[in-house]
Amino acid sequence: MAAVCPISPVRPADSASNARQDCNLDPQSSPVNGLNGVEEEKDQPNRDPRGPSMYIPVSELAGAYLGDNIAAVMGIHPEYLHIFWKTQHQLLRMDGALSLPERHYVAIMAAARHQCIYLVSLHSSCFLQVGGDPRWLEGIQQAPIKLRVLNDLNKFLAHRPWMLAKEHIALLLRPCGGNSWSLAELIHAIVLLTHFHALSSFIMGCGIRTPQSQLSNSRPPSPVESNETLNSAEEAERVVAEMLKLNEEGEEATREEMETRFEKEKIESVMVTANGRITQCFFSPAIYRFLEHPEFGYIDFTRRGEQAPPTFRAHEFTWDCHGYSLMHGLYSEIGQLLDEKFQVSYNLTYHTIATHQGVDTSRLRRAIWNYIQCIYGIRYDDYDYGEVNHLLERSLKVYMKTVTCHPERVTHQLYKDFWRQFKHSEKVHLNFLLLEAKLQAALLYVLRAISSCKT
Ligand SMILES: CC(C)C[C@H](N)C(=O)O
After folding, report:
1. Whose CA is closest to atom 2 on ligand 1?
2. Which of 57, 129, 265, 328 could in theory staple to 385 by disulfide, Cβ–Cβ 3.0 to 4.6 A?
3. Where is the composition biased (Polar residues) (predicted)?
Protein backbone atom coordinates (compact mmCIF):
# COMPACT_ATOMS: atom_id res chain seq x y z
CA MET A 1 0.00 0.00 0.00
CA ALA A 2 1.35 3.39 -0.91
CA ALA A 3 2.24 5.74 1.86
CA VAL A 4 -0.23 8.49 2.45
CA CYS A 5 1.55 11.50 3.81
CA PRO A 6 0.04 12.57 7.09
CA ILE A 7 0.23 16.20 6.13
CA SER A 8 -3.23 16.83 7.40
CA PRO A 9 -4.63 15.54 10.64
CA VAL A 10 -6.93 12.56 10.13
CA ARG A 11 -9.20 11.53 12.94
CA PRO A 12 -10.58 8.03 13.07
CA ALA A 13 -14.02 9.32 12.25
CA ASP A 14 -12.74 11.19 9.22
CA SER A 15 -11.38 8.25 7.36
CA ALA A 16 -11.14 4.67 8.34
CA SER A 17 -9.27 3.90 5.16
CA ASN A 18 -6.45 6.16 6.19
CA ALA A 19 -5.71 4.05 9.20
CA ARG A 20 -2.33 3.17 7.78
CA GLN A 21 -1.43 6.65 6.71
CA ASP A 22 1.75 6.49 8.70
CA CYS A 23 3.13 3.55 6.77
CA ASN A 24 6.76 3.74 5.80
CA LEU A 25 7.52 5.51 9.04
CA ASP A 26 8.63 2.26 10.49
CA PRO A 27 12.45 2.24 10.35
CA GLN A 28 12.37 -1.25 8.88
CA SER A 29 10.27 -0.19 5.94
CA SER A 30 11.49 3.34 5.60
CA PRO A 31 12.97 4.35 2.28
CA VAL A 32 15.79 5.86 4.27
CA ASN A 33 17.76 2.90 5.52
CA GLY A 34 19.22 2.78 8.95
CA LEU A 35 16.91 5.22 10.67
CA ASN A 36 17.26 5.02 14.34
CA GLY A 37 14.75 6.27 16.80
CA VAL A 38 14.72 9.34 18.90
CA GLU A 39 15.68 8.90 22.47
CA GLU A 40 13.32 6.57 24.21
CA GLU A 41 13.42 6.64 27.95
CA LYS A 42 12.51 3.48 29.71
CA ASP A 43 12.21 4.58 33.29
CA GLN A 44 8.87 6.25 33.02
CA PRO A 45 5.84 4.41 34.32
CA ASN A 46 2.33 4.88 32.97
CA ARG A 47 3.41 5.74 29.48
CA ASP A 48 1.77 4.04 26.58
CA PRO A 49 4.67 2.78 24.48
CA ARG A 50 2.69 3.61 21.37
CA GLY A 51 1.35 6.95 22.55
CA PRO A 52 2.07 10.01 20.40
CA SER A 53 4.45 11.55 22.94
CA MET A 54 7.15 10.09 25.17
CA TYR A 55 6.49 12.84 27.72
CA ILE A 56 2.74 13.42 27.66
CA PRO A 57 0.35 10.70 28.84
CA VAL A 58 -2.26 9.66 26.29
CA SER A 59 -5.00 10.67 28.70
CA GLU A 60 -3.91 14.32 28.31
CA LEU A 61 -4.35 14.33 24.56
CA ALA A 62 -7.49 15.50 22.85
CA GLY A 63 -8.15 12.44 20.76
CA ALA A 64 -6.53 10.10 18.33
CA TYR A 65 -5.20 11.40 15.06
CA LEU A 66 -4.26 8.18 13.45
CA GLY A 67 -0.61 7.99 12.67
CA ASP A 68 -0.14 11.71 12.96
CA ASN A 69 1.45 12.17 16.33
CA ILE A 70 2.14 15.86 15.75
CA ALA A 71 -1.55 16.53 15.22
CA ALA A 72 -2.42 14.39 18.23
CA VAL A 73 -0.30 16.64 20.45
CA MET A 74 -1.13 19.94 18.76
CA GLY A 75 -4.79 18.97 18.87
CA ILE A 76 -4.86 19.85 22.57
CA HIS A 77 -5.14 23.39 21.18
CA PRO A 78 -7.47 23.09 18.16
CA GLU A 79 -7.28 26.73 17.20
CA TYR A 80 -3.54 26.49 16.73
CA LEU A 81 -3.66 23.10 15.03
CA HIS A 82 -6.09 24.51 12.50
CA ILE A 83 -3.91 27.40 11.35
CA PHE A 84 -0.76 25.28 11.53
CA TRP A 85 -2.33 22.67 9.31
CA LYS A 86 -3.61 25.25 6.81
CA THR A 87 -0.14 26.78 6.50
CA GLN A 88 1.61 23.46 6.09
CA HIS A 89 -0.95 22.32 3.57
CA GLN A 90 -0.39 25.47 1.54
CA LEU A 91 3.38 25.03 1.67
CA LEU A 92 3.40 21.38 0.67
CA ARG A 93 0.36 20.84 -1.47
CA MET A 94 -0.98 24.02 -2.98
CA ASP A 95 0.26 26.45 -5.62
CA GLY A 96 3.88 27.33 -5.12
CA ALA A 97 7.07 27.84 -7.07
CA LEU A 98 8.71 24.52 -6.18
CA SER A 99 7.74 21.10 -7.45
CA LEU A 100 6.20 18.67 -4.95
CA PRO A 101 9.29 16.45 -4.68
CA GLU A 102 11.50 19.52 -4.20
CA ARG A 103 9.29 20.70 -1.34
CA HIS A 104 9.64 17.41 0.51
CA TYR A 105 13.36 17.29 -0.14
CA VAL A 106 13.79 20.77 1.31
CA ALA A 107 11.81 19.58 4.35
CA ILE A 108 14.23 16.66 4.73
CA MET A 109 17.25 18.97 4.49
CA ALA A 110 15.77 21.26 7.14
CA ALA A 111 14.84 18.47 9.56
CA ALA A 112 18.27 16.86 9.19
CA ARG A 113 19.89 20.02 10.59
CA HIS A 114 18.15 19.34 13.90
CA GLN A 115 18.47 15.57 13.61
CA CYS A 116 14.71 15.15 13.53
CA ILE A 117 14.19 11.54 12.53
CA TYR A 118 10.43 11.93 12.56
CA LEU A 119 10.40 14.51 9.78
CA VAL A 120 13.26 13.05 7.75
CA SER A 121 11.45 9.75 7.69
CA LEU A 122 8.02 11.21 7.00
CA HIS A 123 9.14 13.45 4.17
CA SER A 124 11.25 10.72 2.62
CA SER A 125 8.05 8.72 2.26
CA CYS A 126 6.15 11.70 0.95
CA PHE A 127 8.95 12.52 -1.47
CA LEU A 128 8.64 9.10 -3.08
CA GLN A 129 4.91 9.25 -3.04
CA VAL A 130 4.86 12.42 -5.12
CA GLY A 131 7.23 10.90 -7.66
CA GLY A 132 10.62 11.98 -6.30
CA ASP A 133 13.76 10.30 -7.64
CA PRO A 134 14.74 7.62 -5.08
CA ARG A 135 18.43 8.28 -5.73
CA TRP A 136 18.17 11.66 -4.02
CA LEU A 137 17.37 9.82 -0.80
CA GLU A 138 20.80 8.20 -0.87
CA GLY A 139 22.13 11.52 0.31
CA ILE A 140 22.57 15.17 -0.41
CA GLN A 141 25.41 14.41 -2.85
CA GLN A 142 22.88 12.73 -5.11
CA ALA A 143 20.50 15.68 -5.17
CA PRO A 144 20.66 18.26 -7.95
CA ILE A 145 23.14 21.10 -7.47
CA LYS A 146 20.26 23.51 -7.34
CA LEU A 147 19.13 22.01 -4.04
CA ARG A 148 22.61 21.43 -2.71
CA VAL A 149 23.46 25.10 -2.96
CA LEU A 150 20.82 25.74 -0.33
CA ASN A 151 23.15 24.25 2.25
CA ASP A 152 24.53 27.53 3.61
CA LEU A 153 21.12 29.12 3.78
CA ASN A 154 19.81 26.02 5.55
CA LYS A 155 22.52 25.97 8.17
CA PHE A 156 22.42 29.72 8.89
CA LEU A 157 18.64 29.76 9.14
CA ALA A 158 18.67 26.75 11.44
CA HIS A 159 21.42 27.82 13.81
CA ARG A 160 22.77 31.35 13.35
CA PRO A 161 20.37 33.46 11.32
CA TRP A 162 22.22 36.66 12.29
CA MET A 163 25.02 35.58 9.95
CA LEU A 164 22.81 35.86 6.87
CA ALA A 165 23.86 38.67 4.59
CA LYS A 166 22.57 39.95 1.31
CA GLU A 167 25.55 38.29 -0.40
CA HIS A 168 24.15 34.85 0.47
CA ILE A 169 20.89 35.74 -1.18
CA ALA A 170 22.52 37.41 -4.18
CA LEU A 171 24.64 34.32 -4.78
CA LEU A 172 21.57 32.13 -5.06
CA LEU A 173 19.71 34.56 -7.27
CA ARG A 174 22.48 35.26 -9.76
CA PRO A 175 21.90 33.71 -13.20
CA CYS A 176 23.70 30.41 -13.29
CA GLY A 177 22.30 28.13 -15.96
CA GLY A 178 19.57 25.85 -14.73
CA ASN A 179 20.83 26.04 -11.17
CA SER A 180 19.89 29.55 -10.24
CA TRP A 181 16.93 30.37 -8.09
CA SER A 182 14.09 32.71 -8.91
CA LEU A 183 12.97 34.91 -6.04
CA ALA A 184 9.63 33.10 -5.90
CA GLU A 185 11.34 29.72 -5.61
CA LEU A 186 13.74 31.02 -3.02
CA ILE A 187 10.97 32.40 -0.85
CA HIS A 188 9.14 29.10 -1.04
CA ALA A 189 12.30 27.25 0.00
CA ILE A 190 13.00 29.72 2.81
CA VAL A 191 9.56 29.33 4.32
CA LEU A 192 9.83 25.55 4.05
CA LEU A 193 13.24 25.55 5.72
CA THR A 194 12.21 27.79 8.60
CA HIS A 195 8.90 25.97 9.03
CA PHE A 196 10.62 22.60 9.36
CA HIS A 197 13.45 23.85 11.57
CA ALA A 198 10.86 25.20 13.97
CA LEU A 199 8.69 22.10 13.71
CA SER A 200 11.72 19.94 14.56
CA SER A 201 12.05 21.92 17.78
CA PHE A 202 8.39 21.36 18.55
CA ILE A 203 8.65 17.62 17.93
CA MET A 204 11.64 17.20 20.17
CA GLY A 205 10.36 19.64 22.78
CA CYS A 206 7.17 17.62 23.21
CA GLY A 207 8.92 14.25 22.91
CA ILE A 208 6.80 13.29 19.91
CA ARG A 209 7.33 9.72 18.91
CA THR A 210 8.02 8.55 15.38
CA PRO A 211 4.90 6.50 14.56
CA GLN A 212 5.02 2.73 14.58
CA SER A 213 8.71 2.65 14.99
CA GLN A 214 10.25 -0.26 16.78
CA LEU A 215 12.94 1.94 18.08
CA SER A 216 16.40 0.51 17.96
CA ASN A 217 18.15 3.09 19.97
CA SER A 218 21.48 3.80 18.41
CA ARG A 219 21.91 7.04 20.25
CA PRO A 220 24.06 6.89 23.33
CA PRO A 221 22.02 6.75 26.51
CA SER A 222 21.51 9.98 28.37
CA PRO A 223 23.70 10.45 31.37
CA VAL A 224 22.00 9.69 34.63
CA GLU A 225 20.29 12.86 35.61
CA SER A 226 19.76 14.13 39.05
CA ASN A 227 16.22 14.35 40.19
CA GLU A 228 16.70 17.57 42.07
CA THR A 229 13.55 19.55 42.51
CA LEU A 230 14.51 22.81 40.96
CA ASN A 231 11.11 24.36 41.42
CA SER A 232 9.39 24.81 44.65
CA ALA A 233 5.80 23.74 44.83
CA GLU A 234 4.94 27.43 44.78
CA GLU A 235 6.19 28.04 41.26
CA ALA A 236 2.76 28.85 39.84
CA GLU A 237 1.91 31.11 42.79
CA ARG A 238 5.21 32.89 42.38
CA VAL A 239 4.62 33.57 38.66
CA VAL A 240 1.09 34.83 39.31
CA ALA A 241 2.35 37.11 42.09
CA GLU A 242 5.21 38.42 39.94
CA MET A 243 2.81 39.29 37.14
CA LEU A 244 0.51 41.14 39.50
CA LYS A 245 3.45 43.03 40.92
CA LEU A 246 4.68 44.01 37.47
CA ASN A 247 1.18 45.16 36.53
CA GLU A 248 0.98 47.37 39.60
CA GLU A 249 4.49 48.76 39.62
CA GLY A 250 4.38 50.54 36.29
CA GLU A 251 8.01 51.53 36.87
CA GLU A 252 9.48 53.26 33.81
CA ALA A 253 13.12 52.50 33.13
CA THR A 254 15.20 54.93 31.09
CA ARG A 255 16.11 54.12 27.48
CA GLU A 256 19.70 53.41 28.49
CA GLU A 257 18.60 51.19 31.32
CA MET A 258 16.29 49.25 28.98
CA GLU A 259 19.12 48.71 26.55
CA THR A 260 21.45 47.59 29.32
CA ARG A 261 18.86 45.10 30.55
CA PHE A 262 18.56 43.59 27.08
CA GLU A 263 22.33 43.28 26.68
CA LYS A 264 22.57 41.70 30.12
CA GLU A 265 19.89 39.16 29.28
CA LYS A 266 21.50 38.37 25.94
CA ILE A 267 24.93 37.82 27.50
CA GLU A 268 23.48 35.81 30.38
CA SER A 269 21.57 33.56 28.00
CA VAL A 270 24.96 32.22 26.97
CA MET A 271 25.29 30.64 30.41
CA VAL A 272 21.87 29.04 30.20
CA THR A 273 22.78 25.48 29.35
CA ALA A 274 21.82 22.07 30.58
CA ASN A 275 24.91 21.67 32.73
CA GLY A 276 26.47 18.26 32.63
CA ARG A 277 23.57 16.87 30.70
CA ILE A 278 24.84 17.22 27.18
CA THR A 279 25.45 14.00 25.42
CA GLN A 280 28.11 13.70 22.79
CA CYS A 281 26.79 14.75 19.42
CA PHE A 282 26.01 11.65 17.44
CA PHE A 283 24.60 11.55 13.95
CA SER A 284 22.59 8.65 12.68
CA PRO A 285 23.75 7.72 9.17
CA ALA A 286 20.19 8.28 8.01
CA ILE A 287 20.49 11.92 9.02
CA TYR A 288 24.14 12.40 8.25
CA ARG A 289 23.64 11.67 4.57
CA PHE A 290 21.52 14.78 4.19
CA LEU A 291 23.99 17.06 5.91
CA GLU A 292 26.91 19.13 4.80
CA HIS A 293 28.89 20.79 7.61
CA PRO A 294 27.09 18.75 10.29
CA GLU A 295 29.22 20.29 13.03
CA PHE A 296 27.76 23.75 12.38
CA GLY A 297 25.32 24.61 15.16
CA TYR A 298 24.05 27.35 17.40
CA ILE A 299 27.10 29.01 18.88
CA ASP A 300 28.01 28.17 22.40
CA PHE A 301 29.70 31.53 22.86
CA THR A 302 31.42 30.79 26.11
CA ARG A 303 33.31 27.85 24.77
CA ARG A 304 34.39 29.39 21.52
CA GLY A 305 35.06 32.77 23.01
CA GLU A 306 32.93 34.40 20.35
CA GLN A 307 30.73 37.43 20.58
CA ALA A 308 27.03 37.23 21.24
CA PRO A 309 24.95 37.96 18.12
CA PRO A 310 24.84 41.61 17.14
CA THR A 311 21.62 43.24 18.16
CA PHE A 312 18.80 43.25 15.61
CA ARG A 313 16.61 46.25 16.40
CA ALA A 314 13.16 44.87 15.86
CA HIS A 315 11.58 48.29 15.38
CA GLU A 316 13.80 48.89 12.35
CA PHE A 317 12.55 45.77 10.61
CA THR A 318 9.34 44.52 12.14
CA TRP A 319 7.27 41.57 11.06
CA ASP A 320 4.11 43.68 10.92
CA CYS A 321 5.47 46.49 8.78
CA HIS A 322 8.35 45.06 6.80
CA GLY A 323 8.44 41.28 6.99
CA TYR A 324 4.77 40.75 6.33
CA SER A 325 4.50 43.14 3.40
CA LEU A 326 7.64 41.79 1.75
CA MET A 327 6.38 38.24 2.19
CA HIS A 328 2.93 39.18 1.06
CA GLY A 329 4.28 40.67 -2.15
CA LEU A 330 6.34 37.58 -2.93
CA TYR A 331 4.08 34.76 -1.83
CA SER A 332 0.82 36.26 -0.71
CA GLU A 333 -1.04 33.17 0.49
CA ILE A 334 1.80 32.23 2.77
CA GLY A 335 2.37 35.77 3.99
CA GLN A 336 -1.24 35.85 5.10
CA LEU A 337 -1.17 32.45 6.76
CA LEU A 338 2.09 33.07 8.58
CA ASP A 339 0.73 36.33 9.89
CA GLU A 340 -2.39 34.61 11.14
CA LYS A 341 -0.35 31.83 12.73
CA PHE A 342 1.89 34.30 14.56
CA GLN A 343 -1.16 36.07 15.88
CA VAL A 344 -2.94 32.92 16.97
CA SER A 345 0.10 31.63 18.82
CA TYR A 346 0.99 34.99 20.37
CA ASN A 347 -2.53 35.67 21.57
CA LEU A 348 -3.67 32.20 22.57
CA THR A 349 -4.65 32.13 26.22
CA TYR A 350 -6.99 30.34 28.57
CA HIS A 351 -6.34 32.86 31.35
CA THR A 352 -4.91 30.11 33.50
CA ILE A 353 -1.66 29.37 35.26
CA ALA A 354 -1.60 25.78 36.48
CA THR A 355 -4.69 25.61 38.71
CA HIS A 356 -5.18 29.39 38.86
CA GLN A 357 -8.05 30.77 36.81
CA GLY A 358 -8.81 34.22 35.46
CA VAL A 359 -5.18 35.30 35.20
CA ASP A 360 -3.93 37.77 32.61
CA THR A 361 -0.93 35.82 31.28
CA SER A 362 0.13 38.26 28.59
CA ARG A 363 3.31 39.31 30.42
CA LEU A 364 4.42 35.74 30.81
CA ARG A 365 3.73 34.89 27.16
CA ARG A 366 5.48 38.01 25.97
CA ALA A 367 8.50 37.26 28.17
CA ILE A 368 8.69 33.77 26.62
CA TRP A 369 8.49 35.10 23.06
CA ASN A 370 10.98 37.90 23.64
CA TYR A 371 13.43 35.70 25.46
CA ILE A 372 13.64 33.33 22.50
CA GLN A 373 14.19 36.18 20.10
CA CYS A 374 16.73 37.71 22.50
CA ILE A 375 18.74 34.49 22.20
CA TYR A 376 18.92 35.30 18.49
CA GLY A 377 19.91 38.89 19.19
CA ILE A 378 16.54 40.51 18.48
CA ARG A 379 15.57 43.42 20.69
CA TYR A 380 12.23 45.19 21.06
CA ASP A 381 12.89 48.76 22.14
CA ASP A 382 9.71 49.07 24.13
CA TYR A 383 10.22 45.90 26.13
CA ASP A 384 11.83 45.79 29.54
CA TYR A 385 13.96 42.64 29.54
CA GLY A 386 14.16 42.85 33.32
CA GLU A 387 10.74 41.16 33.28
CA VAL A 388 12.24 38.04 31.80
CA ASN A 389 14.14 37.42 35.00
CA HIS A 390 11.09 37.97 37.14
CA LEU A 391 8.94 35.57 35.17
CA LEU A 392 11.17 32.85 33.73
CA GLU A 393 13.15 30.80 36.20
CA ARG A 394 16.33 29.05 35.27
CA SER A 395 15.08 25.52 34.57
CA LEU A 396 12.43 27.00 32.26
CA LYS A 397 15.08 29.02 30.42
CA VAL A 398 17.27 25.96 30.09
CA TYR A 399 14.42 23.99 28.56
CA MET A 400 13.43 26.87 26.25
CA LYS A 401 16.94 27.42 24.99
CA THR A 402 17.57 23.71 24.51
CA VAL A 403 14.34 23.18 22.55
CA THR A 404 15.02 26.19 20.39
CA CYS A 405 18.75 26.00 19.79
CA HIS A 406 19.69 22.36 20.41
CA PRO A 407 16.46 20.36 20.08
CA GLU A 408 18.37 17.10 19.71
CA ARG A 409 19.52 17.51 23.34
CA VAL A 410 16.05 17.69 24.90
CA THR A 411 15.44 14.98 27.48
CA HIS A 412 12.48 13.94 29.52
CA GLN A 413 14.26 15.23 32.59
CA LEU A 414 14.53 18.72 31.12
CA TYR A 415 10.83 18.54 30.23
CA LYS A 416 9.94 17.56 33.78
CA ASP A 417 12.27 19.98 35.56
CA PHE A 418 10.38 23.19 34.90
CA TRP A 419 6.81 24.27 35.69
CA ARG A 420 6.26 21.16 37.79
CA GLN A 421 2.76 22.22 38.80
CA PHE A 422 1.69 23.24 35.32
CA LYS A 423 -0.37 21.12 32.98
CA HIS A 424 1.00 19.26 29.98
CA SER A 425 -1.26 21.35 27.79
CA GLU A 426 0.59 24.43 29.06
CA LYS A 427 3.93 22.91 28.15
CA VAL A 428 2.59 22.23 24.65
CA HIS A 429 1.33 25.82 24.55
CA LEU A 430 4.83 26.97 25.52
CA ASN A 431 6.20 24.94 22.62
CA PHE A 432 3.96 26.83 20.18
CA LEU A 433 5.46 30.07 21.41
CA LEU A 434 8.96 28.65 21.00
CA LEU A 435 8.20 27.34 17.51
CA GLU A 436 6.72 30.60 16.31
CA ALA A 437 9.22 32.93 17.94
CA LYS A 438 12.07 30.93 16.45
CA LEU A 439 10.40 30.84 13.02
CA GLN A 440 9.77 34.56 13.09
CA ALA A 441 13.33 35.34 14.23
CA ALA A 442 14.81 33.42 11.29
CA LEU A 443 12.35 35.02 8.86
CA LEU A 444 13.14 38.52 10.09
CA TYR A 445 16.84 38.01 9.44
CA VAL A 446 16.41 36.47 6.01
CA LEU A 447 13.74 38.91 4.85
CA ARG A 448 15.92 41.80 5.94
CA ALA A 449 18.75 40.31 3.87
CA ILE A 450 16.43 39.97 0.88
CA SER A 451 15.17 43.50 1.16
CA SER A 452 18.68 44.89 1.37
CA CYS A 453 19.51 42.86 -1.72
CA LYS A 454 16.70 44.53 -3.62
CA THR A 455 17.79 48.05 -2.77
C1 LIG B 1 1.93 28.98 28.36
C2 LIG B 1 0.90 29.01 29.44
C3 LIG B 1 1.46 29.35 30.75
C4 LIG B 1 -0.27 29.87 29.06
C5 LIG B 1 -1.43 29.96 30.03
N6 LIG B 1 -1.92 28.70 30.51
C7 LIG B 1 -2.57 30.74 29.39
O8 LIG B 1 -3.65 30.25 29.24
O9 LIG B 1 -2.38 31.84 28.97
Report:
1. 426
2. 265
3. 15-33
